[in-house]
Design a protein that fits this description.
With 122 residues, the protein is mainly α. It is built from four helices and no strands. The longest helix is centred in the last third of the chain and has 32 residues. The chain is elongated, with a radius of gyration of 18 Å.
């Protein structure tokens, strides 16, 4: 029976704790608001610089919320990785939208890649 309890603990560690789910939802919502508030206007910045800025924002959110994540080390790691994935999933379409905007403005683009592959992956 002790073995069954250990398996149960492992499964519990693989899912997010409710408090961490709530924090991720809150942080994701706030990050989405930040992205929605961005106005593309002159002076325009390059695709590469926008990508750097978005990565900086992601790092700020991760650093801020990492102090509030609860649980054991593994639980915290899982929550932070899930949060990073959520932020990246919001950032990618935002960056694609910015890239399309730059093209529509005839802005010379410094970044040659067709996607924003340097977004940090967990």
């Amino acid at each position: 029976m002790e073995r069954k309890g250990n398996n149960s603990n492992r499964r519990r560690k693989m899912t997010l704790l409710p408090n961490n789910k709530d924090l991720i939802a809150k942080g994701t919502k706030e990050f989405n608001v930040l992205l929605d508030q961005q106005v593309f206007e002159d002076p325009l910045i390059s695709e590469e610089d926008m990508e750097k800025m978005v990565n900086d924002w992601i790092n700020i959110y991760i650093n801020y919320y990492s102090k509030q994540i609860v649980g054991e080390h593994q639980e915290k790691d899982i929550a932070l990785k899930a949060f990073q994935q959520e932020l990246n999933s919001l950032a990618t379409p935002f960056l694609d939208k910015y890239k399309a905007f730059l093209k529509s403005q005839g802005h010379p683009n410094e970044a040659s890649s067709s996607s924003f592959s340097s977004l940090k992956n967990p």
